[in-house]
């Protein structure tokens, strides 16, 4: 169920941003667990540092996925070519 998938992302320690994709093709990144509210039949997602928000019905959520690409912040830098 979609709501269970969202809850799994919300309880992860440490929190990792995740993306909610709607059936319309739009996607919404949740950067902070305080910026999303799970309602009875809708999910409310607020954009940080703005007045923008989205409310998406659970029936129109196509997927919930990690927003990161899997690489950590401290990955080794490439050596310059000689």
Strands, count: 6
Strand order of the largest sheet: 2-1-6
Low-confidence parts lasting 5 or more residues at pLDDT below 50?
none
| SS-based class | mainly beta
| Arithmetic mean pLDDT | 89
Overall 3D form? elongated
**Strand content of the residues, in percent?**
25-35%
Which value, in Å, is the CA radius of gyration?
Answer: 15 Å
Major sheet summary line = 3 strands, antiparallel
In sequence order, what are the helices and strands, one letter per element?
Answer: HEEEEEE
Proportion of residues in helical segments = 10-25%
Distance between the termini: 53 Å
- Compute the number of helices: 1
Please write out the topology.
Blueprint: H1 2-11, E1 18-22, E2 27-30, E3 36-38, E4 42-46, E5 53-57, E6 61-66
Protein model, in words:
The protein has 82 residues and is mainly beta. The chain is built from 1 helix and 6 strands, in the order H-E-E-E-E-E-E. A hairpin with a 4-residue loop joins strand 1 and strand 2 (27-30). The chain is elongated, with a radius of gyration of 15 Å.
How would you describe this structure in keywords?
6 strands, single chain, 3-stranded antiparallel sheet, mainly beta
Task: Provide a brief overview of the structure.
By secondary structure, the chain is mainly beta.
């Amino acid at each position: 169920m979609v709501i269970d998938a969202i809850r799994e992302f919300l309880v992860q320690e440490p929190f990792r941003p995740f993306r909610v994709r709607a059936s319309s093709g739009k996607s919404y990144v949740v950067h902070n667990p305080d910026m999303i509210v799970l309602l009875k039949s809708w999910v409310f997602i607020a954009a940080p540092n703005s007045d923008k928000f989205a409310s998406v019905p659970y029936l129109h959520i196509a997927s919930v996925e990690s927003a990161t690409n899997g690489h950590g912040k401290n990955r080794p830098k490439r050596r310059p070519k000689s």
